[in-house]
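Sequence, please.
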């Protein structure tokens, strides 16, 4: 039950596509968005279509030649890296927090021992 709640649903993933293309998703949103894209073919297809419309038309207007699949792959690759960095720091901060709590506990114990002795 909890897992279903945490997992992004297609309707939400689809709504996030325009923000993804404009690179406006937060790291947390991007993480969930990418997880969904990795395992949901329907949404990935929807992403390709919206990417084509958004990026493709803009490129045509600007008179640029472009390889859409390549552009999309680059955008996805960028997003994956961002998620990786986000996870790394998120995990790192958690460890730092644990070390911080341990240090405070240790100080508290030393403090008490000092008074007891
Ligand atoms: Zn989906």
């Amino acid at each position: 039950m909890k897992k279903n709640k945490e997992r992004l649903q297609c309707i939400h993933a689809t709504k996030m596509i325009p923000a993804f293309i404009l690179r406006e998703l937060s790291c947390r949103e991007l993480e969930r968005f990418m997880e969904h894209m990795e395992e949901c073919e329907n949404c990935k297809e929807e992403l390709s279509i919206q990417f084509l419309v958004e990026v493709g038309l803009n490129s045509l207007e600007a008179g640029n030649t472009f390889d859409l699949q390549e552009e999309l792959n680059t955008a996805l690759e960028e997003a994956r890296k961002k998620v990786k960095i986000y996870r790394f720091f998120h995990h790192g901060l958690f460890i730092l927090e644990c070390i911080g709590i341990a240090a405070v506990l240790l100080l508290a114990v030393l403090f008490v021992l000092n008074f007891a002795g």
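The mean pLDDT is 88.
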